[in-house]
Amino acid sequence: MAEDSPTRFYLDKQNAKWKGVCAGIADYTGIDPLWVRLGTAAMVFIAQQWWIIIAYMVIAWVTPKKPIGLYNSRDEEKFWQGVRSNPKRTTGEVRSKFRELDRRLADIELHYTSRNTQLANEIDSLR
User: Fold this and answer.
1) Residue 28 vs residues 23, 42, 120, 126: alpha-carbon distances, Å
2) Model confidence at 61, in pLDDT bands (50, 70, 90)?
3) Tell me, what's the pLDDT at 11?
4) What per-residue confidence (pLDDT) applies to 1?
5) Would you say 71 and 5 are in contact if contact means Cβ atoms under 8 Å apart?
6) SS3 (DSSP) at 11
7) In angstroms, rounded to a whole number, what is the distance separating the alpha carbons of residues 84 and 81?
8) What is the pTM of this model?
9) Using CB atoms within 10 A of its CB, is residue 11 exposed (0-12), middle (13-18) or buried (19+)?
10) Rounded distance between C-alpha atoms, residue 86 and residue 93, angstroms
11) How is the chain split among helix, strand and coil, in percent rounded to 5?
């Protein structure tokens, strides 16, 4: 079987009400499952789009179940939902975080490697 990928669409059986299709769509897009379910029901009953029932069954039949432990944390789940919805924005956010970390590390390095006599005296007093 193929490797589990956080960018792939899966049925979400852990949060499923019936087959897990709406929960999977909600997980994939980051939308609350209640809204996906209400939208699906509205399309079927109010707009009378009966083909959605057939599409739902086909999706439930061909889509694999979401592996347990696909995400290590809620933050990681939100990150991958962002990647799926807008990959360019997400890579920009990651670059920005790395730039900020790099800047902070450079500030720390500058502080500790500069000629700071007060800091040197404090370190010597601790010995």
Assistant:
1) 9, 20, 53, 54
2) very high
3) 87
4) 45
5) no
6) strand
7) 5
8) 0.60
9) buried
10) 11
11) 70, 0, 30
Q: Is 51 helix (H, G, I), strand (E, B) or coil?
A: helix
Copy the structure tokens of residue 57.
């069954």
Give CA–CA dist 80/102, Å, rounded: 23
Query: In the Cβ-directed half-sphere of 92, how many Cα atoms lie within 13 Å?
Result: 4
Structure tokens that stand for 114 in this block: 């500069």
Residue that the structure tokens 């990681």 belong to: 76
**What HEC string does 74-113 produce?**
HHHHHHHHHHHHCHHHHHHHHHHHHHHHHHHHHHHHHHHH
How many residues in the chain? 127
Residue type at 23 in one-letter notation: A
Is residue 21 a contact partner of residue 55, using CB atoms and an 8 Å limit?
no
